[in-house]
Amino acid sequence: DVITVGELAKRMGVKANELIRELMRQGSMVTINHPLDFETAAILASEFHYEVENVAFDEETVLAHAGEKLGEEAKTGDLKPRPPVVTIMGHVDHGKTSLLDAIRAANVTAGEAGGITQHIGAYDVELDGRKITFLDTPGHEAFTAMRARGAKVTDIVILVVAADDGVMPQTKEAINHSKAAGVPIIIAVNKIDKPEANPERVKQELTEFELVPEEWGGETIFVEVSAKKQTNLDQLLEMILLQAEVMELKADPDKRGKGTIVEARLDKGRGPVATVLVQEGTLKIGDPIVSGVHFGRVRTMTDDRGSRVEAAGPSMPVEVTGLSGVPDAGEMFHAVEDEKVAKDVAQHRQQKLREAELAKTSKISLEQLYARIKEGDVKELKVIVKGDVQGSVEAVKDALLKLSTDACRLVVIHTGVGGIIESDVTLAAASDAIVLGFNVRPEPKASTLAENEGVDIRMYNIIYDAVADVRDAMEGLLAPTL
Ligand code: GDP
Prior knowledge:
Helices cover 35% and strands 24% of the residues.
């Protein structure tokens, strides 16, 4: 880690000139912006009786301080209820987009800007004065890609299942992705207007995934809807609000704003434009912000109806301009005390990114697993199993589950028939899991992603080999691959 003379001085609370003088005494002529390596900084700090480990730029501390309460009179612990943030998932063609559009259309009143809405990646609706925020990139890919970056945005998942089609492969994936994230699921049984609709069959099929309706003694909320006919949409919103109430979702609106980038792009006229979801505090026009390696000042904020807003509180999505570059979806953003801090944090991250490029880190591989089990950091090995036929997937899964021991539990977080796809890799990356392929190969895009994310994919043709490798890893006997 590198720190400049000026930064080090600030951190130690001494004048930069004093440090420069001391460095000159030691024989180096430097300016205030001169970067110091760890060793030099440590030696210099010790001359002033400072602890060596504190010399590195501490992003956490800087950002924690930036998030402190604004205003002298504000008290801590002023948590106020906030709207739930919802993602819609489900199999292709089951009606995710239709449902998002129908809920939105039902909520835009005729008088409002001619009912014109903007697609900014998220919107909010109101039911009897209570708000709900919808992320309008449906599907589990975006959800899990965000989670792989450490973002926890979604409070509740709406799983859409078409009543004429039932549980399909992506339904199952969506369930596993939601469960892996620990997010509660509400089932929207869609297309009930169709003559061939069979909602009871959907309920029956979902019991297999421990999603049991309340009328059958379970705890899962089911709502039968039709996106096409706009049937029971208010009931769905009501159930979301009910679930949110149970969850007691709260945030403190009086802090500086922080949250997650939902999507971002480069606009020809306006420069980088990012849709942000405020999760804590309130973001205001003019706030200095930092997101990933980009920084700037909030120039404009626009809501999903194209209206200018001055401030955005918890769970409110707004489109923001004023950043120096286009951040990635899923990246955090923080409002900070001044633009200098924003710039420092962004530059420090750029530096770290360069260092990380040099020493590519990986998530988890079977080889690393044993070391981590021994150190006691891993109590669970999470596995995704893909195979050519259902029978072999089940056989591998059953054999693997028998390997669980007291020291290390084996959990199969997802299984599926077919090649290893990107969504398997994002799930693995988000959950620190490994992927086992049985008589299948990864798709090229999935391989590239696995390489970038450091996800371990292993291919087998013989069940015994797969099981033996995992057992050996758990017992620390594994010979490295290649
Ligand atoms: P997505 O792939 O999950 O986003 O599904 P879409 O929203 O694109 O819907 C797929 C198809 O199902 C479209 O042709 C929709 O018009 C149709 N659809 C969606 N919801 C309903 C519904 O409630 N009833 C009927 N009859 N058709 C629907």
